[in-house]
Design brief:
Keywords: Antibiotic resistance, Cell membrane, Membrane, Transmembrane, Transmembrane helix, Transport. Its main location: membrane. It is found in: Cell membrane. One of its GO terms (biological process) is response to antibiotic. Helices cover 75% and strands 0% of the residues. The protein is an all-alpha fold. It folds into three domains: 179 residues, Growth Hormone, Chain: A, CATH 1.20.1250; 51 residues; 221 residues, MFS general substrate transporter like domains (Growth Hormone, Chain: A), CATH 1.20.1250.20. The longest helix is centred in the first third of the chain and has 34 residues. The chain is globular and about 60 Å long. It starts with 8 loop residues before the first helix and ends in a 34-residue tail after the last helix.
Length: 488
């Protein structure tokens, strides 16, 4: 059994290491959006290049995150976590010195690979290292500090963009890694899963990432038309079908398709797709709306989003407790509807908008909706499968949320009629933003309908979430596998 106590010096070092590692990926997912307008101007990039700046990272992260967790179980969680941190830092350095948009996009894809290695390992190291009596408090501190990092991320990002420049949004990861890696190697015990066996599902991971990349390309470039776009769309769908077939017939699949035999699990993942598509699209476009249309600086745009994260930090645990008492169906129905109302309130945010009268009410309603749904969603995912598959279920749900977000970033500008230079034309962007909010609200309403029709209370003996406070906006918290006694 793991035996490190939280109050010991080693316990504090382990907590510091995991917080630093997860904060690198969490900060990156929230900070980069704030820098997009400045990146576009400095690199003379059009809207599709900005979409790829976000989505190149998400494609590799979503496609490889399940494989990253499996690598940690097999070769050692600390080892894979450290490799992920180093990889992420090197890719961040490449982002920071990128001379043009093409190099930046390629470096962002490499960042996603590093994120897929370090993200699953962060919580897994806590679960595998701490004594069972201290594990719950350690996870609570880890998620709380991570939430604080998510809250200050857009503020720090805005300050860097307005001050030293957008490149420091990426370069900031390098000193964090230089601090994280030596501490991990010195103080974090190695752990793994002695039950892990069989071949890695590399083919499944490649097909999944390829399908996401090709479909994303087709959506982003669809307005230009042409044979290449059509071929990419068809090839992406073919890769998706091949992914499902491979996962169905492999002896050790990355994503066992039989897990979807649970009607509840399938329904909750459909809700996840609807919710995180809307949220991913919103957080991509909102910071552009604040800067391009309302006239905020990068710092003001990043700070404007702070209420949603603060509400998540303060109220997520209580929301989870409420859902335990009344069941998940009501929170998973009401939460998306509140988020949809927040999206529609954003229609009031245009030229000359007042933050207290126009922006803040929309963000408060949106934040309350997120508070209402995120913790119950995680609990329902874990409760819809057997305890031994809870970690796998969480990983699939997390990957689905990230895939939904990247598809939204690719599709929303197309659906809203945004041209390549839209972010340089305030009036045109404002009109398209309003249409995009309508699409986001529609997706949220669809999620609420699915939840109301299908979601039911999980059995009382199911696995419960360990991460009760969550400040991330791009995906639900990633829960690890239950920790068992090591085999002799």
């Amino acid at each position: 059994m793991p035996d490190v106590r939280l109050a010991s010096p080693q316990g504090k070092w382990i907590l510091l290491t995991t917080v630093l590692g997860s904060s690198m990926a969490l900060l990156d997912s929230t900070v980069v959006n704030v820098a997009l307008p400045r990146i576009g101007r400095d690199l003379d990039a059009n809207l599709s290049a900005l979409q790829w700046t976000v989505n190149a990272y998400m494609v590799t992260l979503a496609g490889l995150i399940l494989l990253g967790g499996a690598l940690g179980d097999r070769f050692g969680r600390r080892k894979v976590f450290v490799v992920g941190v180093v990889w992420f830092a090197v890719a961040s350095l490449l982002c920071g010195i990128a001379p043009n948009a093409g190099v930046l996009i390629a470096a962002r894809a490499l960042q996603g690979v590093g994120g897929a290695l370090l993200t699953p390992g962060s919580l897994a190291l806590i679960q595998a290292s701490f004594h069972p009596d201290d594990r719950g408090r350690a996870v609570g501190l880890w998620s709380g500090f991570g939430g604080v990092g998510a809250a200050v991320g857009p503020f720090v990002g805005g300050w860097l963009v307005d001050g030293p420049g957008w490149r420091w949004v990426f370069l900031l990861n390098v000193p964090l890694a230089l601090l994280c890696v030596p501490v991990a190697l010195r103080h974090v015990p190695e752990s793994g899963d002695q039950r892990a066996h069989g071949r890695f599902d590399v083919l499944g991971a490649v097909l999944g990432a390829l399908a996401l990349a090709l479909v994303t390309y087709a959506l982003i470039e669809a307005s230009a038309g042409g044979a290449v776009v059509a071929v990419s769309a068809v090839a992406g769908l073919a890769a998706a079908v091949a992914f499902v077939l491979v996962e169905r017939h492999r002896p050790d699949p990355m994503m066992p398709t039989d897990i979807f035999a649970s009607r509840q699990f399938t329904a909750v993942n459909l809700v996840t797709l609807c919710v995180y598509a809307a949220l991913g699209g919103f957080f991509f476009l909102a910071v552009l709306q604040f800067q391009v249309v309302v006239g905020y600086s990068a710092l003001a745009a990043g700070t404007a989003l702070l209420p949603t994260t603060v509400l998540m930090l303060l109220l997520s645990a209580r929301s989870g407790e409420l859902a335990d008492r009344i069941g998940p169906r009501i929170p998973l129905t009401v939460g998306p509807l509140l988020c949809a109302a927040g999206m529609l309130l954003m229609l009031r945010v245009g030229p000359g908008a007042s933050y207290p009268a126009d922006v803040l009410p929309a963000l408060l309603v949106l934040g309350l909706g997120m508070v209402t749904l995120v913790a119950p969603l995680t609990a329902t995912v874990l409760g819809s499968v057997s305890v031994v598959r809870a970690g796998l279920a969480s990983g699939i749900n997390n990957a689905a949320a990230r895939a939904a977000g990247l598809m939204a970033v690719a599709a929303l500008p197309l659906l809203a009629g945004m041209g390549e230079e839209a972010y340089r034309e305030p009036a045109a962007f404002d009109t398209a933003f309003g249409k995009a909010m309508g699409w986001c609200a529609g997706a949220l309403v669809a999620g609420a309908v699915i939840a109301a029709a299908v979601v039911r209370r999980p059995p009382p003996d199911c696995r419960r979430p360990e991460c009760l406070r969550h400040g991330g906006m791009t995906a639900p918290p990633l829960e690890g596998e239950p920790v068992r006694k090591k085999l002799p």
